[in-house]
Structure formats: structure tokens, C-alpha cells
Write a structure and sequence with these properties.
Layout lengths: L27 E5 L3 E2 L11 H14 L5 E6 L2 E6 L1 H10 L3 E6 L4 H14 L5 H13 L5 H8 L3 H8 L6 H8 L5 H7 L4 H14 L3 H11 L15 H14 L3 E6 L2 E6 L4 H13 L3
Helix pairs in contact: 1-2, 5-6, 8-10
Length: 285
């Protein structure tokens, strides 16, 4: 079976020349699915199976309404954009799929896949971070150049890239949705070796982003250079204090006395007092 051949236009300047514009003729072809290889630079690392099932069902009934974007290779085609449509079409049992064919360099493929997913709000924070990092490390783009290409502020690109510096456990919690990007950025204010424990406390106590920021601020408060009256210089004692701070999510001070000591737990609002009460009285130990 022969495939319909198409003429390919050369690359223009900017992404607008690569994406078909309204009013322009967009050459398409019906391409056999088994001749298309997935995009190795696909930014999206996870796909919701329920969404794929729903899309596959729609494709069985209505067909593929929007062509995918591919680039021609020596032995077929490589997918550039339209990963979900491609997978759902395979799942729906289709043999062919409508596609727009463009000749694209590696960087253009990554940019287009990234832009499409960003426009559809399909990428998670870590997926965006890895995609931006690829544009920096593999193609030498600056944060400002990336910002122009994806329509974001330069500061957003920089802050997203900082997520790659987080402890792996925090990154995993962000990918799985147990932490939001705001939570993760706040936790990034701690030294890396303290981030995992802090994240566990934030998740366990269901802190808001604002509460997490306050929690991190308190954890970062410098210790007094000299011990307070009645306070022992004891590493185990200080470790217990740190554990209580992380467990309760607030500033905790221990002070020894001749016959025992005191635990001072601070709170900064009625809401925090209620949470501490639930934690100490009503919640698990």
C-alpha cells in the first residue's frame, strides 16, 4: 500500500512558521500508525489511563478530529506533537491517522512538543522543569529565550528549573500530586538533607502553601549562639527539639530544670492552635 506523498515547506522564523496558522493550507496525510515512532523528546512523562480510554472511545465514534504533527525520518515518521491522540488511536484499533508533516530539527521538535503541552496545561511542574532543562543543556537556550518561546516570564522559567535541585523524595511527591508546586518551592528554602523530612511533615499535616512557608521559616531560624538559662548543650536534646518542630510544624523550645524541664510550643493564630490541639489530643501520636 502506497502512502500519499506531500511537499514539505522549509523552516521559517519562529514557532509560528512551524504551527499551521488559520487561513493557511495545511498539508496533511493519512499515515499508517505502525510507521510512526513516539517522540523521544516528549516532555509529558505520565498519561492518565482513564483520559486515554475516554479519548479512544471518542476516536472510535468520531475519528481523529485534529491531525498529529510528525517529521519524516529515513524509515518512516517520528511523532512531534499529539502523543495522546497517537496512543488513543492505537488503543482504538485504528490503522491510520491524519498527520501534518514538517521537516524539523531536534530543538524544534522539543519546542513544539513543549509548547503544545503547555498550551493544553498538560505538563506537571517536574515535566516542565525537565523540558526546560533540556532546552538549556542540549541546545544552549537562556532562560530569557525559553520564556519568549513558551510565553512565560523569565522568573517562572528560573523558578521551575530550581525544582530540579530538590531532594528526590520531594520531587517524587510533587510528581504524584502529594505536594503542589507552591509547597515544593517553599521546601526548597531548606538545605537538601532536611527537605524530605520537612515534606513528610507538610504532607502528613496537610499544610497549606502559606503554612508551609511559615513552617520552613521557623525551621530556618538560627539557633541562639549561647544556651539559654537552664538549657543543656546536648546533641540528643537538640535532636529531640528538631524532631518536635518538624512533627508539630511550629517552633518548639525545650528547657531543662533541676527536676525536669519545660516544652514550649508556639502558635501564631487560632487556626494553628486548633491544629496543634488536634495533633496533640485528637490526632495520632
Amino acid at each position: 500500500m502506497t502512502l500519499r506523498s506531500e511537499r514539505h515547506t522549509g523552516l521559517g522564523r519562529g514557532l509560528s512558521s512551524l504551527i499551521p496558522q488559520r487561513g493557511q493550507a495545511s498539508p496533511t496525510a493519512e499515515i499508517a500508525l505502525d510507521r510512526i515512532r513516539p517522540n523521544p523528546r516528549q516532555p509529558r512523562q505520565r498519561m492518565d489511563q482513564n483520559e486515554l480510554d475516554s479519548l479512544a472511545s471518542s476516536i472510535r465514534e468520531h475519528g481523529v478530529l485534529q491531525p498529529i504533527l510528525v517529521t519524516e525520518t529515513l524509515d518512516g515518521y517520528q511523532l512531534v506533537a499529539g502523543e495522546r491522540r497517537f496512543r488513543a488511536s492505537q488503543q482504538a484499533g485504528l490503522e491510520r491517522i491524519p498527520a501534518v508533516i514538517r521537516q524539523l530539527a531536534d530543538r524544534d521538535q522539543l519546542e513544539l512538543a513543549l509548547v503544545e503541552n503547555l498550551q493544553r496545561a498538560d505538563l506537571g511542574p517536574m515535566e516542565e522543569a525537565h523540558a526546560f532543562e533540556a532546552l538549556v543543556s542540549e541546545f544552549g537556550l537562556t532562560h530569557e529565550q525559553i520564556a519568549r518561546r513558551v510565553g512565560r516570564a523569565k522568573s517562572t522559567i528560573t523558578n521551575t528549573l530550581r525544582l530540579l535541585e530538590l531532594d528526590p523524595a520531594v520531587q517524587e511527591a510533587l510528581v504524584e500530586g502529594r505536594l503542589s508546586e507552591g509547597h515544593a518551592r517553599a521546601i526548597g528554602g531548606l538545605a537538601t538533607d532536611h527537605q524530605a523530612r520537612a515534606a513528610a511533615s507538610v504532607i502528613e499535616q496537610q499544610f497549606s502553601v502559606r503554612q508551609t512557608e511559615e513552617f520552613v521559616r521557623r525551621l530556618r531560624e538560627p539557633r541562639p549562639t549561647a544556651p539559654a538559662v537552664g538549657r543543656a548543650v546536648d546533641p540528643d536534646f537538640e535532636r529531640v527539639e528538631d524532631d518536635l518542630r518538624r512533627r508539630l510544624g511550629t517552633k518548639v523550645t525545650l528547657a531543662r530544670s533541676r527536676k525536669g524541664g519545660r516544652i514550649i510550643i508556639e502558635f501564631y493564630s487560632d487556626e494553628e492552635l486548633g491544629q496543634l490541639y488536634d495533633r496533640l489530643i485528637g490526632g495520632p501520636a
